[in-house]
Amino acid sequence: MLIRASYRMFQIALRPLGNTKTSQSLLLHNPSRAAAVRHLSAEQFPTDDPEESSITTGAGSAAALDKIPSLQPTPTRTIPNLEYPVSKSAFHNDLQSFLQYVERVGLAKSSTVFVGTHFEYTVAATLALYGFFLRRIGGVSDAGVDLLGTWSIPLSSPLTEQPQQEQETQPERRPPLRVIIQCKVTPNPRPGLIRELEGAFIGAPAGWRMTSPSSGDGVLGILVLDKPATKGIREAMGRSRWPMGFVYCSKEGVVEQFLWNERAVAQGLEGLGAVKRYAPQGQQVALTFKGRILRCVLPSGTEGSE
């Protein structure tokens, strides 16, 4: 079934950046809406999937990365008086301390506890490169929330013919988004995971809780899997009235897919895009804003209180 025209999904194309038509893509299930998407100069081309009627590519996304203007690293911003729950573990609080704990107690690396916890810390460390500040709270009675925190996105100005001195001004900043994240290592990605994420909004800790999809509280839910989003997951996320995104992060800590729905755009992701880029560990996703690559954002390391 086609997703209704009221939704649009951002999807990372799986081909290399050198392909001029698939490096950055905006998946439109109704091509007539392409003209309504601001900040994109687009062209359409057919896809292999009859359900996906067109792919629209952002102008400039096919250029070599060294020719795309970029934004330099910027410290994350904090949200005053944001209180984090006390961590469920007194023995580790990041990937390094967890691995030390594993060696100390002899935890089997094939156990579900190791696999799940290792993936959660890997995701937290990886998303820090994209401006996320995350803490692990996963445990009993966590309401389905594994990671909790904020997302600060430095945003560039549009690419125009402005004088050089105007183009070099500081990037605009939007208030950080509060984020709740569910991490899953699963052999069977299914649409039901989107419904589970919807329930996490209501059960999240006080500073991140949303009572309704339309409350406009500046909260974003993200599902992170170790596998790409299936068609069913994409469609379920597109239908959802809750602001949410999807990240495909490998167990080695490489982001290979980043998607979000229409409601997430309204929460503060307007103008954001994504491209594939080459890195020493292979291809990975880089975020863009109005044609500019957003470089790694340096976490401040401190935020809120426990």
UniProtKB/TrEMBL annotation:
Its main location: mitochondrion. The keyword Mitochondrion applies. It comes from the Eukaryota. Pfam families: RRG7 (PF10356). One of its GO terms (cellular component) is mitochondrion. Keywords: Mitochondrion. It is found in: Mitochondrion. This is Uncharacterized protein. The lineage of its organism: Eukaryota, Fungi, Dikarya, Ascomycota, Pezizomycotina.
